[in-house]
Amino acid sequence: MLALLGTAAKAQPNPFEHDMDDTLTTSVVSVVKEKPRNTTQTGLIRLDASKLKSGAVSFGTPDIIKTLLTLPGVSAGNELMSGMYVHGGDGTDNLYLLDGVPLYNISHFGGLFSSFNTDVTNGVDFYKSGFPARYGSRLSSVVDVDTKEGDLFKYHGNVSIGLIDGRVQVEGPIIKGKTSFNIAFRRSWLDGMIALAKAAKKRKDVNAAYFMQDLNVGLTHYFKEENKLRANFFWGLDDLNLGLYQTSTSMDLGVRWGNLSGSIDWSVKIKNGLRSNLLVYYTQSNSKTKYKMDMSSSVLEDMIQSGIKDVGGKYNLDWFPNASHHVRAGGEGAVKMYRFVGQAEDPSDPQSVSPKVIHNRIQGGIFIEDEWFAARWFTANAGLRYGVYAAKDKIWHCLEPRAALKFSPVRWMDIKVSYSRMTQGDHLVASSYIDLPSNTWMPSTKDIRPVTSDQVSGGFYFTPIQGMKVNVEGWYKTMNHLLMYSGPNAMFPPVQNWENSFSEGKGVSYGLETELSWSNEKISATAYYTLSWSRRLFPQMYPFWFFDHNDNRHKLNLIFSYHVIPSLELYLDWNYHTGNRVTFPSNVLVNGTMLYDEPYNLTLPDYHRMDLGVTYTKTFKNSHQFVVCGSVYNLYNHKNAFFAFLRKNDNGDYEGVAYSVIPIFPSVSFTYKF
Question: Maximum CA pair distance of the chain?
Fold first, then answer.
């Protein structure tokens, strides 16, 4: 979760050089160290698989999203949740891609894990500004996850046992030198642990069960060196059941949610300097929530199903007309199906109609961009994207210009500036900022237009001495046509005529990010600091600008690792940020009526914690490895506020109370690599 971060290019193995494993690995590492300086875009961070798996791993399982949350400009929201708020975003505006396929729900167990399994991850490109024209449909960030191709010549894999889950991954050739597979599966065993605890205490008034599991399958076939076909499949599932049984009342709750995606990707070299890539895919995200409350006088029962499905394709061309230009062009389109079904108001009445909302929409875009290497000291990336979002009675057309410039006056310094416009046609219908499986995606309509953002960013990037980096980057971002829930206070907000339950507004975010890092063969130390502001304006709700929920003024992450010996590595991470904001009444009348002056008018106590990790690796003569990873989350047991509410104390006065949920938590995992 709290991995030691670095930047890395996505390294693609050469299947025709299987006798050069050691040489290939060394050459990749030497290239990777300078990769951030060579990119034109601002706000781009590249992580390879080794960085994603290192660090103080919480609950014995490394996680991509938890790693990204340590970066500057990214707010984490509630502790241990997978919510990610980038440059003032609201968490619903991040584009998550798995091998080019969009995923809509990336959280397991409310965010304890994300859906990305690091056992099959080759690398991650994370954009938070300076977006190239080839990406679209989201406002604030792009998380582009690439899975590994299976080994074409050798069979190997790993088996891991963690605190609350287990993982297995196997890869190897099907046709040696031509076709390979890579399969990974993981499952939690919380359901078994809960059952044992329940049996030990002989509790009959409580019933609880939960499990999560996911499966990644990848197949790769090389027709020749630069002509390959990849097929990827992903399936993830969460299942939660909770029952409380008292003498006069009982309650049963069941929630089941997950993702399913599949794709076929064909990459081919047409001729020297011209390559093409065709991707066709299917992806869906579904959830089903049902509950029944049986009281002595009445029975409350409800069932909600929601989901979104895409059937789409992408076609990209990469053209190298000469040594100075890299031109990318292409297009994408998808048929999107939005579905919501609720239980009838009175199940016993055949005339009671079950609310059902189904929308079919078309979304697409075309783009062109040129990476121009004008001189050693100057490169530029200019592009234009045209997006179309089809509503029932309206078609929204969106032009998105993008530009990035990089100046290198001396070899040890870069200066970068960029401008990006982004649009988003999907809207998440939710009654709170917490990411719940019951939240429902809906398309833009004739009354609800796509959300837009304009972002300017720039910075200075230094490598003054060997092993040291000093980066300073700032951004200013405006957001228009944002939506905020203003309907009734309910877990399941209205979906029929959902537009009437939301107010339209705008936002602004700006700030400064800094990175100072130093490393040698044994020690690595990094400090990330962010100073930021995030504000909103929703005139129908409040006539003035107000601070956003995730307006964390200061954020500081200190990350340290030390190779005591080649087989033993220690990690120490310290995380701090200004507390999240919540809405509290400014006055309470004698009759108990609460009055509010403005949204998010109170700041929770500052958040901070320290995590410790240690990894021991035993390598055997046959090159197999046994890895023990231990960690302690929240080392000094600081009680960080998870949520807060207003209550009346024994003296009859009102007081605010904040609750902490996550104490000090040790964990350990064991991995055998073969």
Answer: 82
Name the 3-class secondary structure at 41: coil
Query: 183 by DSSP, 3-state: which?
Result: strand
User: Within 239-378, where are the H helices?
Assistant: none
**Token code pair at residue 658:** 């904040």
Tell me the residue ranges of DSSP E strands in 272-324: 274-294, 299-322
Which of 422, 540, 471, 567 minimizes the C-alpha distance to 95?
422
Distances (CA, A) of 342 to 181, 301, 426: 41, 11, 21
| Distance of alpha carbon 164 from alpha carbon 168, whole angstroms | 14
110-166 residue pLDDT tens: 667 789 999 999 999 999 999 999 999 999 999 999 999 999 999 999 999 988 889
Run of H or E including 345: none
From residue 424, give the alpha-carbon distance in Å to each of 82, 363, 413, 421, 480: 21, 10, 35, 11, 11
pTM comes to 0.90
The stretch 549-561 carries a mean pLDDT of 94
pLDDT at 527: 97
* Residue (of 454, 450, 441) closest to 401 by Cα position: 454
Give the tens place of pLDDT for each residue, 255-290. Answer: 899 999 999 999 999 999 999 999 999 999 999 888
What does the angle CA 591 – CA 592 – CA 595 come to, to the nearest 5 degrees?
115
**Mean predicted confidence (pLDDT) in 172-187:** 96
